[in-house]
Predict the structure of Tryptophan--tRNA ligase.
Amino acid sequence: MTRLSAITPSGHAHLGNHLGALRHWARSDGPDDLYFVSDLHAMTVSYNPPRLRSLTRELLAVLVASGIDPSRLCVQSDLVRELGALSWVLECTCSYGEAARMTQFKAKGGTAARLGLLTYPVLMAADILLQGASKVPVGDDQLQHVELARSLARRFNASYGEVFVVPEAVTPPTAARVRDLTSPDRKMSKSTRDAAGVVFVLDDPDLIRRKISRAVTDSLDEVAYRPETQPGVANLLEIYAACTGTSPRDLTFPTYAALKSAVADAVIEELRPIRSGVTTLLSDPAELDRIRKAGADRARTRATHRLDSALRLAGV
Ligand code: ADP
Ligand code: NA
């Protein structure tokens, strides 16, 4: 069984990425599991090339510093030639209607949208199929992309010959959903413009404390775990519980100030080793380059045979 997951360098990694994804990836035990920085996906909307390159590098360093086995890491664009080739083959088996049905395109698409916004679910299918991933852990928002990858794999296998593993979406059990600290009605996200409610993995301790002290709560002045009626407080309790290995229902704090101070301490401690590891990694560019190249070589080795078979079966 091979698992595959990705994080897009559309911004800096945040506490939600860490608690909901990265720290679980670090516990991954499948020898062929693969985690990658999906920089090609960041090109589907307007972006700045030097910033993309620097975010990609920073994110790779964050993944390594999070304890993910470097042999399971790679940067998507290091396989751009292989992925480009397979994407074309898959695009030629995918209908316009299938691609246009994807919610991302329905939400942000239009005649002025980049064609890549329409076709990137096919690129995602290429990521999955090229590596022969059997399990793709996803949230609800990504389920339909894995469904598309399944359809395209089945269709190719049936029309041209068996070459692709048909992937399965797996929903990770109770992964923490961290909410924005100042707008607890939405999830913490890299692409949020106002970063006041977003704790970044690389924020310094003072800034983390300041952001958490300004987290939105409510006027009930009672620390209780009631996600429906007290979402801000519930979010802080969940963050504290995730950082300390406790359950949000069991926690008691006398005041909101005491809760926020404890959450800040816990988050600062949780992120400290990652921040320090990233600082070390970014100060030694040759070592990070070496890790990146080794990951790319491994992923490419795994992909080449399957790509060659697919091209041959497709008649080119
Ligand atoms: P973002 O939405 O911040 O751009 P991505 O879409 O790149 O993040 O997701 C990378 C990983 O982080 C995915 O596994 C996703 O489920 C997880 N993730 C993103 N935001 C959160 C959050 N607020 N809480 C928990 N997990 C999250
Ligand atoms: Na996003």
In short: The domain at 4-175+285-313 is CATH 3.40.50.620 (Rossmann fold). The chain has a mean pLDDT of 94. Residues 8, 10, 189-191 surround sodium ion (ligand 2) (CB under 6 Å).
